[in-house]
Structure to design on (339 residues):
């Protein structure tokens, strides 16, 4: 049964034991007001003014190096479109359990897959999360129900790809290489884009459960939006930092393949999703990576005698299978390919 179905069964006064996760130390979350997550103005990153562009590129590089996470504002994707995505995705989860079963998928690489937790077959505790996961590029896939959802997702994914392509140019510049370097090396034109909706229903005991555990994302960059409920936390300088994004912004994190490609100069960020007992939180992520058959290894331009290759090469598809078939925990997947 989905978590949503469990919550709506009207018999839930406490969470089932299989959803109880190890407790989180109270002192591990940092609420200090002087910790400021970087904010990048997309309009300046793509500006014709060399000074503005240079300053924004520098900030982008610093954010990828020091945080692996930043907010993106003035990106050109309208708030109305984001709201439409949330409404459409919520309507998918409002389908009956029987209707959603049509889209469960049978294998980890199925282009349309919905379910609960992350990988119940290998997890000691289940996570308070239902999901819809779609492979939307280079070939677009989406569920046929409810009517109109496919068109909404396709338009949004096209917009988010355009934003990501410009960001990757900025990342290349920040590394001191030609701006199309990552595009060419990672075959971005035929790159993999995965669309994921995370649905976190209200939880009667949020202190005992997790939406998603601490983990990193695969790929190069993930663009995330959420409805008006916070829950994301990123790990920074040994503390968990709650994320409260500005209005109409993207939350963006660097993924494992950015860390591999840059030979560890830019780190993938460890993050987690917490739940609440008030209302349903929905987040929508688009993960952008190379083409499935691209072998990702450290860039030769970033290998020196002092910094030899830190990771072995692996195809993007094999890495996805490695991550999806194992328990989700911190950088455990990336650790498997460290040299």
């Amino acid at each position: 049964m989905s978590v949503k179905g469990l919550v709506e069964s009207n018999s839930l006064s406490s969470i089932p034991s299989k959803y109880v996760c190890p407790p989180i130390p109270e002192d591990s979350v940092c609420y200090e007001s002087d910790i400021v997550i970087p904010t990048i103005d997309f309009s300046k990153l793509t500006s014709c003014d060399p000074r503005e562009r240079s300053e924004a590129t520098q900030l982008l590089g610093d954010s990828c190096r020091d945080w692996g996470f930043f907010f993106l504002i003035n990106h050109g994707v309208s708030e109305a479109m984001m709201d439409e995505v949330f409404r459409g995705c919520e309507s998918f989860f409002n389908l009956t359990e029987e209707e959603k079963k049509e889209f469960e998928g049978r294998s980890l690489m199925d282009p349309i897959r919905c379910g609960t937790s992350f990988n119940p077959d290998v997890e000691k505790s289940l996570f308070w999360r239902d999901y819809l996961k779609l492979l939307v590029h280079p070939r677009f896939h989406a569920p046929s129900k409810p009517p109109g959802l496919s068109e909404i997702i396709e338009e949004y994914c096209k917009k988010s790809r355009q934003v990501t392509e410009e960001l990757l140019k900025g990342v290349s510049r920040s590394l001191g290489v030609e701006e199309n370097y990552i595009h060419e090396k990672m075959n971005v034109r035929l790159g993999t884009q995965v669309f994921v909706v995370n649905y976190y229903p209200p939880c009667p005991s949020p202190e005992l459960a997790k939406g998603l555990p601490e983990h990193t994302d695969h790929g190069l960059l993930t663009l995330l939006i959420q409805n008006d409920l916070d829950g994301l936390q990123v790990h920074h300088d040994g503390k968990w930092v709650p994320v409260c994004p500005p209005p109409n912004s993207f939350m963006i994190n660097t993924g494992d393949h950015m860390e591999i490609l840059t030979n560890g100069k830019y780190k993938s960020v460890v993050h987690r999703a917490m739940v609440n007992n008030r209302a349903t939180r929905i987040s929508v992520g688009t993960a952008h990576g190379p083409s499935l058959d691209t072998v990702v290894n450290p860039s030769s331009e970033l290998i020196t005698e002092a910094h030899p290759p830190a990771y072995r090469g692996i195809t993007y598809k094999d890495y996805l299978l490695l991550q999806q078939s194992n328990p989700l925990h911190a950088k455990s997947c990336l650790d498997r390919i460290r040299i």
Q: What stands out?
A: The chain has a mean pLDDT of 93. Residues 105 and 233 are 29 Å apart (CA to CA). The chain has one domain: 3-7+25-335. The radius of gyration is 19 Å.
